[in-house]
What does this fold into?
Amino acid sequence: MRDSASFLRSIDDDHHVIELHAWRTPATCTFAAFIYEKVPRRLLLHIAGSDEDAVILKALEWSKRH
It folds into this structure.
């Protein structure tokens, strides 16, 4: 996903890496956070929504609990 045109940034959070992506159209904007385990590198969860801050906060909260 990191090579995708939707990729915005990566957040390194302890045992996880959170990748933030955005898809924009003239009418809407959707943000998604993909949470990966660092070792082995595998997708654990994704969170999507229209509020960038809310998506990031949910991803960080999930990462802290797991």
